[in-house]
Specification:
Blueprint: E1 21-24, H1 29-38, E2 46-50, E3 56-60, E4 68-72, H2 79-95, E5 100-105, H3 124-134, E6 139-143, E7 161-164, H4 167-177, E8 184-187, H5 193-202, E9 207-209, E10 211-214, E11 220-223, E12 234-241, H6 245-256, E13 262-269, H7 275-281, E14 286-288, H8 303-313
Parallel strand pairs: 1-4, 4-5, 5-6, 6-7, 8-9, 8-12, 12-13, 13-14
Antiparallel strand pairs: 2-3, 10-11
Helix pairs in contact: 1-8, 4-5
Bound molecules: ribose-5-phosphate (R5P).
């Protein structure tokens, strides 16, 4: 099983958070404002525009000379655009004299292509990681990054990096909304064991993991786990819901085995096409996601998680 969080290099822990600037890329402006609010400050100003041919234009309006800057930018929905934006922001910050740039990439796209599965394919995860380093990211934080086969971040990042988890926040929300009674937590595939374990511990309950075989980008084959789900409330947890093939497969099995009420929680609600509708049509009681990817179900904000980490690391 892969670890839930990792630290590839030691990150300094200081107590004071002073002089720090927080900048949100256009994929995460609202999230960056929330993080700044948690830290009693205003986000730094940045202007975004597009040239007539579609190229991105941006200008950092605050003076960041000699400052540590936190850049918050999920690489979601239109990943190529938001990746380029992240690269432009970080490179510009370094050019105009920022001392240290700390990247928070709550949703890290391209992580699922974490291997060259067929000869000649792009190993996208490696390429994107390289770009993020080359522009001058000094430290990197991700949240529930998909790293199925890449177990250790040192295999990919040479800079200090840490993968945080939003599962405790999601589990707390599920407990607080009180829809489920003593739920069994289910991870729909082997990788999800790490998240199911964290959520189950938080909810002081048990968990099980299904087996998944991917047949195509939208089709999966799922086999049930060992625990009896009859008449149990269930919480399915995963890192990403994209097409919802995985979650729908898990829901069908759980209902066929007699589960009572099922909530679905994920960190990154990408929800392409009619994914959300499919989940509800299959009978889910509630779908809950975080704001790493803004969506109609982003009820849980990861702002406290990011703010807490900034405080712990004590960037100057
Ligand atoms: C894959 O292993 C991930 O953890 C998710 O289960 C997957 O990305 C979900 O994708 P989809 O919603 O398209 O099935």
């Amino acid at each position: 099983m892969v670890e839930t969080s990792f630290i590839s290099c030691r990150i300094n822990v200081r107590q004071q958070v002073e002089f720090l600037k927080i900048i949100g890329g256009s994929a995460s402006e609202a999230l960056a404002s929330k993080v700044a609010h948690e830290l009693d400050r205003e986000p730094a100003k940045i202007e975004f525009n597009k040239f007539p041919d579609g190229e991105k234009y941006l200008r950092i309006l605050d003076d960041v000379k000699g400052e540590d800057v936190v850049v918050i930018q999920s690489i979601n929905r239109t990943p190529d655009e938001f990746l380029v934006e992240y690269l432009l922001i970080v490179d510009t910050l370094k050019d105009v004299g920022a001392t240290k740039v700390v990247g928070f990439i709550p949703y890290f796209a391209y992580a699922r292509q974490d291997e060259r599965f067929k000869p000649g394919e792009a190993f996208s995860f490696k390429t994107v990681s390289k770009l993020i380093e080359i522009v001058g990211t000094d430290e990197l934080y991700t949240i529930d990054m998909h790293k199925h086969r890449v177990v250790r971040s040192t295999d990919l990042f040479k800079i200090p990096s840490q993968n945080l988890t939003a599962m405790p926040l999601l589990a707390d929300y599920v407990e607080k909304t009180g829809n489920l009674q003593n739920p069994l937590v289910i991870g729909p595939d082997a990788e999800a064991a790490q998240w199911a374990k964290v959520a189950a511990e938080r909810l002081r309950t048990d968990y099980d993991v299904f087996e998944k075989k991917r047949l195509g980008s939208e089709n999966v084959q799922i086999r049930p786990g060992k625990l009896n789900v009859k008449d149990r409330d269930v919480l399915i947890v995963d890192d990403i819901i994209s097409t919802s093939g995985t979650v729908v497969g898990a829901l069908e099995i759980l209902f066929s085995q007699g589960a009572r009420k099922i909530d679905v929680a994920c960190t990154h609600p990408i929800l392409v096409g009619g994914a959300l509708e499919k989940i509800y049509e299959t009978g889910a009681n509630n779908v809950i996601g975080t704001d790493t990817v803004p969506s109609p179900v982003s009820y849980v904000s990861v702002a406290p998680l990011i703010a807490e980490q900034i405080k712990k690391a004590g960037f100057r």
